[in-house]
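Lecture 7 notes: from sequence to structure.
We start with the chain below.
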Amino acid sequence: MGRLRHRSRRRNKQRKVIIISICSLLLIMTVGYAAMQTNLEIKAKGNVIKKATAGSDLVDKAGVVTSGDGLYMDGYEENVYTYRGGNPNNYVTFNDEEWRIISANTSDNTIKIMRNEILEYRQFDTASGRYQEDNGYCNDDYHGCNIWGSSSTLFNAIMSPVTTLAREVGGATYALPTSEADLNTYLNTTYYNGLNVTARSMIKSDTMYKVGVLNYSSSQTTSTDMTQVSAAKWKGKVALIDATEYVRASTNSSCTGASAYYTSSSCYNNSSNHNWMYRSNKNYWWTMSPWSSTNSSYFVWVMYGDGYFNVNGAYNMNAVRPVVTLSPEVQITDGTGSSSDPYQLTI
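Predicted structure tokens for the same chain:
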């Protein structure tokens, strides 16, 4: 009997040792797995923070100003910061060329840039390429069409697809064309394909650009202008500025809307002192904003070389300054943003 009791105690002891060992092993494995998952999560989050904050990184690097040349809180779009003044430090090397930063968005962490030097003169749209009979938006067979996109690439302010658009703000709507403006097609095929591989990889391909019809009114403010240009949006890769972006790049507080650059000499005669987009070499260059007109669908807002807005028929030849939006994954690796030390990018 004594031997049996001894063996029983030994077996019980062995069972306890085995159970304790198994529990300890499970505990170690659980803690180790949790630590590994935490580490992976931290690393993953760290990579996202590091690689997807281009807009926020630029704002932190450049700093925000309230006077003089520099990066301003936009005031018209939430989480957008806009470069203003005669010559802010917004130079950036892109496609091995000199471009300039228009704005940074800390909501989607994108950066919008514009080529500093102009491209060759081109038509906004060919004379009759998109002509529509009956109830079509493009109703002119001789002067081209002023709408940048088409029924498959245009959206309204709440991002729903649109198939009709008014030529005049608040007016009747007309069926949109089924193809893009000639300049749109060129920039998003031939020109885009000519960019180097690195530059193409940096572009956010599904950016929404404002292409709504902009009314002319001497009393209209930038806030109203913004509402109008935001009424229609085009989704794509390569675009132009909308007319409000020229106004928002100025530090001249007396120029409160796009129409002021059409009517007031105090705006356009002093553009070189207040607006970095101004070009003194008399080049005329396209914006992406259609001019509001009851019966005509071919007038486009154009920035004239003297620093003032006017309108041109879409079939005319004007200079081109491409605009692209950089992906949040782009990183600023070097530079101060000056013309002699532009920002350097990588992805």
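Points to note: The longest strand covers residues 97-105. Confidence is low (pLDDT under 50) at residues 3-7, 35-49.
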